[in-house]
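Hi,

I'm pasting everything inline rather than attaching a file, because the server keeps stripping attachments. The sequence lines come first, and each chain or strand is labelled.
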Amino acid sequence: MLKLRAGYGVTGQQDGIGDYAYISNYFIGSQTAQYIFGPDTLLVFRPSGFDANLRWETTTSYNIGLDFGILKDRFSGSVDVYRKITTDLLAVVPVAAGTNFTNEILTNVGSMKNQGIEFSINAGLFANKNSRLDLMANASHNLNRVVKLSQIEDPDAVGVQVGGISGGIGNTVQVHRVGYPTFSFLLFEQLYDQNGQVIQVGQQANIDINNDGQITAADKWKDIHAYVDRNGDGVINIKDRYIYNQSVPNWFLGLSLNYQYKNWSFGASMRSELGGHIYNNIHSNAGTFQSVNGTQGYLNNISSLYYEDEIQKIATNQLLSDHYMEKADFLRMDFFSVGYNFGKLKYFGEKVGLNATFVINNVFVLTNYSGLDPEIGGGIDNNIYPRPRVYSLNLSFDF
Amino acid sequence: MKKTIFPSLLVVAVALASITSCKKQLNQTPMYGLNAEKVYSDPNNYINVLAKLYSGLSMTGIQGPAGAGDIAGIDEGFSAYVRVLWNLQELPTDEALCGWSDPGIPALNKSDWSADDGWIKGMYYRIYYQITLCNEFIWQSRDEKLAERGFSQADVERIRTYRNEARFLRALSYYHAMDLFGNIPFVDENDRVGAFQPDRIDRASLFAYIEEELKGIEDVLLEPGAAPYGRATKSAAHALLAKLYLNAEVYTNTARYADCKTYCEKIISAGAFQLDDVYQDMFLADNHTSPEIIFPVVYDGLYAQTWGGTTYLVCGALGGAMNAANYGVNGKWGGLRVTPQFVNKFPDSTLDSRYLFYRTGQQLNFSAPTQLAQFNYGYAFPKFKNKTKAGLNGSNNANSAHVDIDFPMFRLADVYLMLAESSFRLGDQATALQYVNLIRTRAYNTSAFNVASLSLDVILDERARELSWEATRRTDLIRFGKFTGGDYVWSFKGGEVDGIATEAFKNLYPIPNADLGLNPNLIQNPGY
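And the predicted assembly:
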C-alpha cells in the first residue's frame, strides 16, 4: 500500500497579544498610588505601551507526505517533508529609550522559516498465539531560520534582542538575526586564566594591568581581559557578542515498545532531543557571593557552582558570558509499565475481572546538562523544581 | 445531499454579507476601559494624567506600593525615580555608603560601574519613561487639539497650565539625563510612539534646549504661593534654571554664573519662600508645611506608597542599635551610612543642628574592605524621619515602611548657596558672605558661628553640610573638580578602604549597552 499526500494551510497565532494592544490604553492607578496636589489626592491615569501595527503571527505551511504499509500493514510508516513560513513573528523585545510608554513590548519582529523532514514507523515485529511485540519509532529534523527582520535593514546590525534573563535590568542573551535560528544565543566569549578560572571583571588581576611596574590591588581585570574582543577595536561592547548556538533542538527522536506475553504486558516509551542549548541562568545569577552572603546577613539559595569553587565576586558583570552555556541534549524514558491481567476472579464468582498495572512516569533522563532538567522551553533555565518521578499502581476491576 | 448544500450556501452568503458590512468598522475602539481618545475628550481627566507625570517622580507604578510597575526587568522598588537618582548622586560620593551587595550597589560605592549596571539602566529608563509620558501629554494638550475638542475657554486655560507643567517635568528629566549621561537620545512631543531610533543630542545642545524650554514657561507657570503645594511653579522653573547655569561650565565649557545669580534673585524677590526655623523640620513627616520647599516630590504613608523614595532614605538608614519606631517606621533595612570624611566636615559637631548622625554602637572609621557591608561601621544618618514636628507618628502610625516625608527637590537654602557661590565666583564677596551666613545662623540658631571670609572650599563644605543626602553631591563635586581624580578622596572611593584617585571619564555615567544595541545613533561616552 502506498499513499501520497500533499497539504497547504495558513494559520494565525495571537498568543500574548493583550486586548486592544494596538492603541494607547489608559489604566487607573490604585488608591495607594495617588499623587497629592495641595488638598487634593488624585488618582493617576497611566498609558500602557502599545504597537499601532500589531497583528497576528501567520504561518503558511506546505507539506508532502508518503504513507506506506507492507505485509498487510504489519510494517507501516510515513515520511513527510514540510516547509512553514511564519510572517509577523511575535516577540517581546526591548524598545529604544524614548519611543514607547514602556521599555519592553510585544511586537511583530519579522519572519522565519521552518523546514524539515519527519519519519515514522510502526512495526509489528512478531505476533503469535502467546506473545506480540510492537514498535513505534519516529524521528524528525527541523531547520529554523530568521529570513527577515522588519525593523532592521542594516545587515551588520545586532538583530532583535530577545530572551530576557534574571539578574540585572533588561539583560537579554538571545537574538533574532537574519540567517540564524530564532532565539540564537548572543553572548561574549569568556576568557580563562592559566588555572582555568573565569576572568572576572573588577577583580584583582595577577598581571600588571595599569603598567606601573608592579602588581598591586589597583590592578583589576577589565572587560577587555575577560572577553574576546572579536572585532579587535579595543573595547568590549555589544559588537563583540557572537552567535553562540541555537536554543531550540533540531533533532527529535521517539521510540515506544509494547510487549505482551500471555497475561503480562510491558510498555515503554523514550524520547530524545538533540542540538538544543541552554543558558543556565541559575548558575549565572545565583552563583555569586551575593547569593552566599545575602543582602541582609542571611543566606540565599545559591547554585551548585559554589562546590566547584567557582563563584562570581561581582554579580552583574559576567551575566552575558558564554561560560554559562551548556548542551541540552538528552534521552528520557517518559514511561514504563508492567501489567498483569488476572482475568475473572474466582473469589467473586467469576463476575469480577482484575487488571493490575504498575507504571513509572519519568523513569530516567540521560544528559550532560548540569541543571535540574534539560527540557525547558526557551533555552533559559531558571527552573528550581525537579520534574517528579511518579510511581503508580493501577488496579482496574470490571463488573 | 441537497438538504445540506443550501444551508451551507446560506452560511457563506451571510458571512460574506457581514464581512462587507463591517469593513468600515474594522478599526474599532474598545467599548469599555479607557484609551487615549476617551481620556483626552473629557477636560476633567487631564489632571489625572498630569498626576501620573508628577507621580513618575515618586511612585514606581500605578499600584502602591508595588505590583504594576512602570519599568520592566527591574525590582520595582529599585526603579523609583528619587531612589535611583539618589543612588547615582550620593553613593559614589563622600556623603553616603550602602552596605548591601545587591548588584550594582558596591560598584556605585567604589566608582566601579559598567555600562551594563542595573542602577544606571534603572535611572536611564526611568528618565525616558518620564520624558515619553510628558511628550504624549504635551502633544495631546497642544492648542489645536484642545480647540478641536471644543473645550470651554476656562478649561483650555487650565489645561494649558498643566501642559506647561509637563514641559517643566520633561525639562527636569532632561536636566538629570544631561547631568548624568551627557550625550543622549532626544525625543520631543513630535516623536510619536512607534518603532524608530531617536537622534542623539550632544550635551551642549541639550543644555540649550532645556534653557529654551524653561524660559518658554517661566512666565506662564503658576505663581509660587498661589499654586497648590506639589505643583511646579515659576520658582521651580527658576530654581532649575539657576542649577543649569551654576553648572553650565561643566555642561558647555562656558560659565554662566551671572545668569545663575539672576535666577536665584528672582526666586528670593518673589518672596514666597522663607528659611524654615528648624533645620530638621524639612525632613519630617509634615514637611509639606515647611515654608522653604520650592519643589517637592510628594509621598504619603497611605495614599502614595512606594518602596523607593523617602521610604528608602528612612528605612535604608536605620540599623544597628536604632529603634525603628522612633523614626516612625516598622523596619530597619540596615544599609546607608556616611564616610568619616563627611562627618569631619562638622568641626563644631553637636552645636550644628545639621549634625544628625547616630553614633551609638557605630564606628566612625573604616579599616577593612568587609566593613563596607557591616552596618556598625560608619556613622548612621537618620536625617529623614517619619515623625511630625510635634513628635507624632506619620499617617502609617509607625506600622509600615511607607512614609509621609516629601523629598525636597529644590529648596530655598540651595538657592541661597547657589547665589552665594555664583556671587563669589563673580567677585562679589559681600553677597556671598551674607547668604552663607543666613544658612549658618539658621543651622546654629545663632550668628556666633558666622564666617568672616569665604573660599570655594568653604562654600563646597557648606553645601555638603546643608544639602547632605539631597541628591546634589555628585554634581557639586564635579563642578569643583573633586568627584574624580586624586584631589579629594574618601573611604571606598575607587574601591580602596582609604580611597584612591579615580579616572576623569567617570564624571559621566555610561549609556547603557542595551540602548546602544537598539539605537545605532548613539555613541558610548569615552572611557567605557
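The longest helix of chain B spans residues 153-181.

If the labels don't parse on your end, tell me and I'll reformat.
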